[in-house]
Specification:
The complex is a heterodimer of chains A (309) and B (516).
Chain A (H helix, E strand, L loop, with lengths): L10 H29 L7 H19 L2 H23 L6 H20 L12 E3 L7 H6 L1 E3 H19 L1 H11 L1 H6 L4 H25 L13 H11 L4 H23 L6 H5 L1 H13 L18
Chain B lengths: L17 E10 L2 E11 L4 E5 L6 H9 L6 E6 L2 E3 L4 H6 L2 E4 L11 H7 L10 H13 L16 H14 L4 E5 L7 H16 L4 E5 L3 H7 L2 E6 L2 E7 L5 H9 L19 E11 L6 E10 L3 E5 L6 H8 L7 E6 L2 E2 L4 H7 L1 E4 L3 H4 L7 H5 L18 H14 L16 H13 L5 E5 L7 H16 L3 E5 L3 H7 L2 E6 L2 E7 L5 H8 L4
Parallel strand pairs in B: 3-8, 3-9, 6-7, 7-8, 13-18, 13-19, 16-17, 17-18
Antiparallel strand pairs in B: 1-2, 1-4, 4-5, 9-10, 11-12, 11-14, 14-15, 19-20
Helix pairs in contact in B: 14-15
Classes of the chains: A mainly alpha (309), B alpha/beta (516).
């Protein structure tokens, strides 16, 4: 069954490592964005739509301007607009954030496919990556350590957010609003405005995840570009207990699980590897079942979140 | 009204005096507060008494700037001020500790204090803040751990932290809204004693809303009583007896009287037997563990305890809402799993706390809510397929008049009723027909004197006619008045049992606080 590939069976962990980094990057950005939004006491399920629209925007702008970074910035701007729309609608009384999220998801997907049709053919410049594997002669190791810049930014961002939740005024205000709307109002804060901004920031980060998909891996724009990363990331945030560093680690775990199928295929396993493509989804289910209980409430959940009420 | 902007702001740490003159507040044609003048000199501890709806909260909301009074004025240290918002009140040093905690549960004490300041730096230097807070806490009579999340603090610690927060923000006049409702007697005494010390040293002036006469007589200097929006009386506490104050509060309303307690027969058969029940609590981190709890026919067993020690979980287990991991519940000798059928066969009735949310469908009508126990039964017995609206309405009408439920119409949604009337309606539903076992949780919370008296009388009547009653309550006075036996629940376990007649409050309090 095994085919000789230079480093043999060691190719599997190496491929999982490289895959974890490659696949996890969009999860990192979407889940960090969603952790900001959910910490403010609101759920934005529309991030899947924001992600795909961000992918389309980033690709289109990169094609037109020939600058991938301009594409990322444009994606962030559109993501923020999507977040603002969600936050603005949710401001009205008796509006359910989850229902609006689902509507926004369909809206984002549809709009992206409609506007993105002309950009399926052209080729956009890719985002850069940093080769950290120069010390090795093996091409497998070199390619595995070729780490994309957005992954590094995402890792730094998760630490920065974790710090900011504890040590900055903005971070504390976000947690106050997310935990108790009444306490926030007693403090003279307007929960709706804070949530509006938190949803906008969350949207712009989710769009960066989309930009990564179209401008780095897989690195092209088409209608099947996302396989539910935007939705999965919402589950990730709950699994990570709203902790940004937890989001980063959970995204890595999911990326690794997602890389299992391709890795086995690359070392020549020809049967059953399709089953491993389902690994991230099975993992989602297993984790959510294992960490939830009918008789106790979720520890660390923001008190004002609609799903925890 | 002239707005005085040049009033010198009071210094933090020095008490201010407060006066209201002719405070009147109208909502449309309804006068919630009618010409109330009170005078609270600097450095005194003043009590505000009154029933629900007497206008206490309207008065303090006018003082704090939540409401703008229709007429009348407010003075601080003899100067008239205009308070447009709670923020204005804060600049004059007026603060309020609400009945519900306003601390953010997931934040630590220190984070809660710092984020409430008017000016919070963009990046918080925790090393410096901790040092400042430690220096501030040195001056405070209260000792509270500031580095733990507020959700992990005991209720007494939270209440102290609320007060500390107001002092940290530089308030020199504090309104305390029923500050001891969630504390053990010992915690309450300690907290009020410390507050009293601060007023005696001239650091603070306090206006306390309270229901408890013994607190008022023990700790406060003067009292003002409101009834139906009007001033019903006031004076120095040392000149007034508890009876005088109660008379001022309720006026000439006749309260329902408790039936004489019939003795529990020695051979009364056990109705409810709970043995070795273990179940996880809401956090999933702790367990409740009930070794043996037996309630006999014709007796009331009271369960005392501070909220959050597992009483709610125990009630949920008995109601079938929380599956136990081990142990058994038997009712009248047979295993009981709280299904609708078992409930019906054994005549078990249940009045949970906050009945509007836990025992009613709030948007359904009063008639429908009153029929919840019977709508699926035919008159001759057997399961009904169609609803018999006519007899449902007839039955509702008779229950409404029997139990004096005040409702605009039988087809009003039950959510439109006041708290006391929802409680009466649920009581009407649960106490009608044969009742062998009644489980009641905090039945009188937040109700006025006449509703309380009547509900207690109904429960006592049921007891005297042979119903076994399990009464879970956070109100010790209620338990002492109603129960035959009192058990104390602490940290998920029943830790103490005493006959109510020979009960010693301080021993019960010590067990509630976990000293056993």
């Amino acid at each position: 069954m095994m085919e000789e590939t230079g480093i043999g069976i060691w190719g599997v962990p190496l491929a999982i490592f490289a895959g974890a980094i490659r696949v996890s990057t969009p999860f990192i950005f979407v889940s960090l964005g969603e952790s900001i939004t959910e910490r403010s006491g609101r759920i934005n399920l529309g991030l899947e739509g924001t992600l795909v629209f961000g992918a389309m925007t980033a690709y289109a702008i990169a094609v037109m301007s020939n600058s991938p970074w301009l594409g990322v910035l444009a994606a962030m701007a559109t993501g923020a607009v999507f977040g603002l729309i969600h936050g603005w609608i949710c401001k009205f009384p008796k509006v359910n954030d989850i229902a609006i999220g689902i509507a926004m998801m369909q809206f984002g997907l549809g709009l992206a496919f409609f506007l993105g049709k002309p950009f399926i053919q052209p080729v956009a410049p890719h985002l850069p990556s940093i080769p950290l594997g120069g010390w090795s002669d093996l091409p497998q190791i070199q390619s595995a350590l070729n780490i994309n810049v957005l992954f590094i930014i995402g890792a730094l961002l998760s630490v920065a957010l974790w710090w900011a939740f504890k040590n900055t005024r903005v971070g504390l205000i976000l947690r106050v609003v997310g935990d108790s709307s009444d306490a926030a109002r007693a403090m003279g804060l307007n929960p709706d405005s804070v949530r509006l901004l938190a949803t906008a920031v969350g949207g712009s980060l989710a769009a960066v995840g989309g930009a990564y998909l179209s401008l780095f891996y897989p690195g092209s724009w088409n209608e099947g570009i996302s396989s539910g990363q935007g939705l999965m990331a919402v589950a990730l945030v709950i699994f990570a207990r709203w902790n940004p560093i937890g989001c980063f680690l959970a995204a890595l775990l999911f990326g690794g699980a997602g890389a299992l199928g391709p890795a086995l295929q690359s070392v020549g396993v020809t049967q059953g590897y399709y089953l491993f493509y389902a690994a991230p989804y099975v993992l989602t289910l297993v984790i959510l079942v294992a960490t939830s209980s009918p008789t106790r409430s979720l520890a660390g959940a923001p008190g004002a979140l609609s799903i925890t009420k | 009204m002239i707005q005085v902007r040049d009033t010198p702001l009071p210094q933090a740490g020095k008490a201010v005096g407060i006066q209201t003159i002719g405070m009147t507040m109208r909502f449309g044609s309804f006068t919630a507060l009618d010409n109330v003048s009170i005078d609270i000199p600097a450095g005194t501890f003043h009590a505000l008494l009154g029933e629900n709806g007497a206008g206490k909260s309207t008065l303090v909301k006018c003082i704090m700037g939540f409401y703008h009074q229709t007429s009348g004025s407010l003075s601080v240290d003899g100067r008239e001020i205009a308070v447009q918002s709670p923020r204005d009140a804060a600049t004059y040093g007026l603060g309020m500790v609400y009945q519900q905690f306003t601390l953010v549960p997931s934040l630590t004490g220190a984070e809660n204090l710092v984020i409430n300041r008017t000016h919070v730096p963009a990046v918080i230097n925790w090393a410096k803040e901790r040092k400042d807070l430690a220096a501030f806490m040195e001056r405070m009579p209260f000792k509270i751990p500031l580095d733990r999340p507020v959700s992990e603090l005991a209720a007494g610690e939270k209440q102290k932290l609320e007060i500390v927060k107001q002092l940290y923000l530089g308030r020199s006049f504090l309104i305390l809204d029923e500050p001891t409702s969630v504390l053990t007697p010992a915690e309450a005494d300690e907290m009020l004693g410390l507050v009293r010390g601060m007023t005696e040293r001239g650091e603070l002036t306090v206006l306390m809303i309270s229901h408890k006469f013994h607190e008022v007589t023990k700790f406060t200097d003067a009292v003002t009583v409101l009834r139906r929006g009007k001033m019903a009386g006031s004076g120095l506490v040392k000149d007034l007896s508890t009876k005088d104050m109660a008379a001022m509060m309720i006026g000439d309303v006749k309260l329902a009287e408790l039936d004489t307690r019939l003795p529990v027969p020695a051979d009364a058969r056990p109705i409810l037997v709970v043995s070795d029940i273990k179940a996880p609590d809401r956090t999933g981190l702790k367990m409740i563990d009930i070794g043996n709890l037996t309630v006999h026919a014709g007796e009331i067993v009271g369960i005392a305890g501070i909220s959050g020690n597992g009483q709610k979980e125990l009630a949920e287990v008995l109601a079938g809402q929380r599956p136990p991991e081990a142990g058994s519940i038997t009712v009248k000798g047979s295993l009981y799993g709280a299904t609708r059928q078992e409930t019906r066969i054994n005549n078990v009735r249940f009045i949970p706390e906050e009945p509007l949310n836990n025992a009613c469908a709030p948007k359904m009508t009063v008639t429908e809510n009153l029929a919840f126990r019977t709508f699926d039964l035919k008159k001759q017995g057997g399961e009904a397929l169609w609803l018999d609206m006519k007899s449902m309405r007839k039955r509702a009408a008779s229950l409404i008049s029997d139990f004096k439920v005040k409702t605009a119409s039988h087809s009003s949604p039950i959510a439109s009723l006041s708290g006391g009337n929802v409680q009466r309606a649920v009581l009407a539903r649960e106490l009608t027909g044969d009742v062998d076992l009644l489980i009641v949780s905090n039945p009188c919370f937040g109700l006025d004197f006449s509703a309380v008296a009547e509900i207690r009388a109904r429960i006592m009547k049921a007891r005297n006619s042979g119903t076994a009653v399990l009464l879970l309550s956070e109100d010790l006075d209620e338990l002492l008045e109603m129960s035959d036996r009192i058990m104390v629940m602490s940290d998920g376990k029943l830790v103490y049992e005493t006959p109510a007649l020979s009960a010693d409050i301080s021993v019960i309090g010590a067990h509630m606080a976990g000293h056993h």
